[in-house]
Amino acid sequence: MTRIHFQNRQRRIRLPRAWIVSSLRALLHAEGCGLGLSVVYVDNATLKDLNARFHAANRLTDVLAFPMAAWPPRRAKRGEPEKRRGATAADDAPLLGEVIVSADRAEQESRWRGLPLDRELTLYAVHGTLHLLGYDDHAAGERKGMRRREREALAAGRACTWPAPTSRRRSVLPPRRLS
């Protein structure tokens, strides 16, 4: 099972840990990614500081994604041994990267949009993970595919944490469509 390293470094907002972790596991599984992931929830001030330090943008953002491994991984040539790529966590499992989410920003956005806070908190982690997996949301066509994948991951995670009738339950995302 894919290892998700989950840290809550803010104290004000209760996090839907089960939904977040199951959504991320379903997404990584559907993408064929066996690497682990680190997810950290912080406050606005911390994320703004990180954005200024690592992206030279002294402004608030909702999520930052820091890659620790190339995805998709480079295939070894014939006769070349497979090498483990990516940083490793405390349990020595290679990591795809680290996603850092502003819980405060998710709360503000959920109020403004009239959406459940748990959904927004989970969405931000999924969004950052999709960036680590190579998805982009700058061009309209790519943004549409990324939004579809976000909805699928949220639904898969919710189905894993809050069981629905078996006939309607989906435990994982559909495999990624190759184009």
Provide a descriptive summary of the structure in words:
There is one protein chain. The chain has helices spanning 17-30, 44-55, 103-113, 117-132, 140-161; strands at 4-8, 36-42, 63-67, 87-88, 94-102. It is an alpha/beta fold. It has one domain (4-70, 87-161): 3-Layer(aba) Sandwich (Collagenase (Catalytic Domain)). Strands 1, 2, 3, 4 and 5 form a five-stranded mixed beta sheet that branches. Strand 1 (4-8), helix 1 (17-30) and strand 2 (36-42) form a beta-alpha-beta unit. The longest helix has 22 residues, at 140-161.
Label this structure with key terms.
about 180 residues, alpha/beta, Collagenase (Catalytic Domain), 5 strands, about 40% helix, about 15% strand, globular
List the helices and strands and how they pair.
Elements: E1 4-8, H1 17-30, E2 36-42, H2 44-55, E3 63-67, E4 87-88, E5 94-102, H3 103-113, H4 117-132, H5 140-161
Parallel strand pairs: 1-2, 2-5
Antiparallel strand pairs: 3-5, 4-5
